[in-house]
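Quick one, C-alpha cells below. Sequence please?
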C-alpha cells in the first residue's frame, strides 16, 4: 500500500526522540509533524485530519494517557501508538489500551519493530477507510436505486389511475385536481410527508370501481333511476375488491379510499354507513376533494357550479356529510385551492 499521503503526528517532550522518529518516518516516506508540547499537539489533532499518532507517555502538563483520553472523546478510529520507557509499569499499558491506544513501542525505539508496527496499523486503517467509503458508496447506490424504483412505481400509479377515465366522463384534470386537493388537506390536517405522498398517488383510484358499472348507467346523460343509482353505489366495493390484495402501500391506500370516499360523517353515506372517525382519514379527505371538484366541473347532465357556490355547499354540509376540521382546513386554504382549480382545466 502507498502511505505517502498519510499524515503522522509525533508527540514527545524530548527533541532527540522526536528527531529519531522523524528520521525513521522520512525513510518510510511518511509525512510527519512533530510536537514537543502535548497541549499544542492536542489542539492540532482535534482540528486537522490525521492518520496516526505516536505519543510518549511521560510528559509535563499532559501525559500520554490524559492525551489519549481527551482525543478519544472526539476521534475514535485514528490509530495511536504509545511509546514508553522499558521499565514502565504494565498497568500503564493496560490503562492506555482501555483509553484507546492501539499498540506500544518501548524506548529506545527499534527502527525495524517501529516500521513493522506502523505499517501494520496504517494498513488496517487504510482498509477501514476503504470499507467505510465503499459502504457509503453502496448506501448512495441503494438510495439511488430505491428512488428510481419509487419513480417508476409513481409513473405506474399515474397510468393506472387514469383507467376509469376511459369509461367515466370525468377527465384527467378531475383526477389531478382531486389528488392535489387531497394532498393540501392532508398537509393541513398534519399527516406526515409520507402519508401525504401516499394519499396523492392513491386518491386517483377513488372511482376505479366505475369500470365495473354498465355504460348505459355510467354514461347516462340524465338523472339515474333509484334502481340505477343502487347499481352505481356498488362502485366503491368494486374498486376495493380490485385493489385490496395488493402489496403496494399506494394501492392498499387506494382500496381504502375507493371503499370510503362516499361515506358521510353523519352515517348517511355508502356502502357501509360509517360515521365520524370510523371513516378512514383518507376517505374523509377524498370525499371533500371529490365532491368539490365534481360540483365545479361540467358534466353532460349538469352545469358546473361556481367556485363560491361549491365552497358554500361544503360549509353547509360540514359536520353532516363532511369532517368539520377538514372543511375548516379547506376554507382556510382557499387561495391554494383556487390555484389548483385554475391550473388543471378540463379539455
Amino acid at each position: 500500500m502507498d502511505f505517502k499521503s498519510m499524515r503522522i503526528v509525533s508527540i514527545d517532550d524530548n527533541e532527540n526522540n522526536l528527531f529519531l522518529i522523524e528520521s525513521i518516518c522520512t525513510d518510510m516516506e511518511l509525512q510527519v509533524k512533530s510536537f514537543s508540547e502535548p497541549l499544542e499537539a492536542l489542539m492540532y489533532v482535534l482540528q486537522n485530519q490525521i492518520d496516526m499518532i505516536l505519543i510518549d507517555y511521560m510528559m509535563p502538563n499532559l501525559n500520554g494517557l490524559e492525551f489519549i483520553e481527551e482525543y478519544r472523546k472526539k476521534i475514535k478510529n485514528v490509530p495511536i501508538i504509545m511509546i514508553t520507557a522499558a521499565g514502565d509499569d504494565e498497568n500503564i499499558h493496560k490503562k492506555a489500551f482501555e483509553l484507546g491506544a492501539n499498540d506500544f513501542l518501548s524506548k529506545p525505539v527499534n527502527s525495524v519493530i517501529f516500521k513493522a508496527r506502523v505499517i501494520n496499523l496504517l494498513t488496517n486503517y487504510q482498509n477501514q477507510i476503504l470499507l467505510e467509503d465503499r459502504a457509503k458508496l453502496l448506501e448512495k447506490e441503494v438510495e439511488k436505486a430505491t428512488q428510481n424504483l419509487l419513480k417508476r412505481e409513481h409513473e405506474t400509479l399515474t397510468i393506472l389511475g387514469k383507467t376509469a377515465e376511459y369509461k367515466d366522463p370525468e377527465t384527467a384534470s378531475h383526477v389531478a385536481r382531486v389528488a392535489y386537493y387531497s394532498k393540501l388537506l392532508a398537509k393541513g390536517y398534519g399527516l406526515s410527508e409520507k402519508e401525504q405522498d401516499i394519499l396523492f398517488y392513491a386518491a386517483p383510484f377513488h372511482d376505479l370501481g366505475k369500470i365495473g358499472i354498465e355504460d348505459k348507467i355510467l354514461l347516462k346523460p340524465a338523472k339515474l333511476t333509484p334502481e340505477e343509482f343502487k347499481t352505481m353505489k356498488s362502485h366503491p366495493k368494486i374498486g376495493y375488491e380490485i385493489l385490496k390484495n395488493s402489496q403496494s402501500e399506494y394501492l392498499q391506500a387506494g382500496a381504502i379510499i375507493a371503499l370510503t370516499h362516499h361515506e358521510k360523517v353523519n352515517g348517511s353515506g355508502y356502502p357501509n354507513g360509517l360515521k365520524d372517525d370510523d371513516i378512514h382519514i383518507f376517505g374523509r379527505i377524498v370525499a371533500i376533494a371529490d365532491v368539490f371538484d365534481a360540483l365545479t366541473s361540467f358534466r353532460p347532465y349538469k352545469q358546473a357550479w361556481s367556485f363560491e357556490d361549491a365552497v358554500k355547499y361544503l360549509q353547509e354540509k360540514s359536520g353532516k356529510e363532511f369532517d368539520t376540521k377538514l372543511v375548516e382546513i379547506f376554507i382556510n386554504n382557499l387561495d391554494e385551492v383556487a390555484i389548483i382549480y385554475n391550473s388543471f382545466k378540463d379539455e
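The first helix runs from residue 15 to 27. The chain has two domains: 7-135, 162-343.
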